[in-house]
């Protein structure tokens, strides 16, 4: 397969990023703030997504971009494949309903296509996924947010300095085994059981462009990908100038 020509950033240009499985744009917004122009792709209708996006199957869209050579318009790819397969939270919560752990694993086919692009990339997944390579783990407390929201990131074709995991200041607010616990963080998943209101979720996550609970609970805080995007652009700029990042 012919590899695409990588686009180098020139003065005044913003490199273009492909945001696969984009949901409502938590990841994409962080990258946009870091300095990218963002295009999304999601199989669901996402009217709250703040950037141009293609509605359709993310892997089929990526395969088509590779086949046509259009992937060469991009400098970087972020992918957040659905996390239900093998996710400890999903399995434990839904085992009694008979469907936890039955979802299709999209991480491996996503990685295979991303490798075929020849582009640097990120695959984002939550804790509890044994099959992902954990090159980077980020937590809301690292950015002063009101959520813990641990997320692991696999980096393809580039590296990043791993930041120290900042100690948590207390518990996540909500019910555990019938007992209510208070704390400085909200639980960014589910509904009921002491879960936060939509405005509380928006404030805790740093997301103000959607008020759909499902989108908020599936999102990652933009601060995470702003950190990743800034690190990538800084590293690439240093490489092009022939100096250490």
From TrEMBL:
GO biological process, one term: methylation
Molecular function in Gene Ontology: methyltransferase activity
Keywords on record: Methyltransferase, Transferase
Gene3D superfamilies: Vaccinia Virus protein VP39
Cross-referenced InterPro entries: SAM-dependent_MTases_sf
SUPFAM superfamilies the record matches: S-adenosyl-L-methionine-dependent methyltransferases (SSF53335)
Name used for this protein in its record: DNA cytosine methyltransferase
Organism encoding this protein: Streptomyces eurythermus
């Amino acid at each position: 397969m012919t590899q695409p020509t990588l686009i180098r950033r020139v003065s005044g240009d913003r490199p273009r990023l492909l945001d696969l499985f984009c949901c409502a744009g938590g990841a994409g917004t962080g990258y946009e703030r870091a300095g990218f122009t963002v295009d999304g792709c999601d199989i669901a209708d996402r009217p709250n997504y703040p950037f141009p996006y293609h509605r359709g199957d993310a892997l089929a869209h990526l395969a088509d971009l590779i086949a046509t050579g259009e992937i060469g318009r991009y400098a970087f790819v972020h992918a957040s494949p659905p996390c239900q397969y093998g996710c400890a939270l999903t399995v434990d919560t839904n085992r009694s309903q008979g469907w936890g752990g039955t979802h299709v694993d999209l991480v491996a086919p996503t990685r295979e296509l991303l490798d075929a692009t020849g582009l640097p990339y990120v695959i984002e997944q939550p804790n509890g996924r044994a099959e992902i390579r954990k090159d980077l783990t980020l937590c809301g407390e690292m950015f002063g947010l009101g959520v813990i929201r641990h997320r692991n990131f696999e980096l393809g074709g580039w590296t990043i300095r791993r930041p120290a995991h900042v100690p948590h200041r207390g518990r996540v607010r909500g019910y555990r085994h019938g007992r209510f616990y208070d704390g400085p963080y909200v639980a960014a998943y589910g509904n009921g059981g002491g879960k936060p209101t939509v405005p509380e979720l928006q404030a805790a996550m740093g997301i103000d462009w959607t008020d759909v609970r499902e989108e908020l609970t599936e999102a990652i805080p933009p601060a995470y990908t702003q950190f990743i995007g800034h690190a990538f652009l800084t590293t690439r700029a240093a490489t092009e100038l022939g100096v250490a990042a």
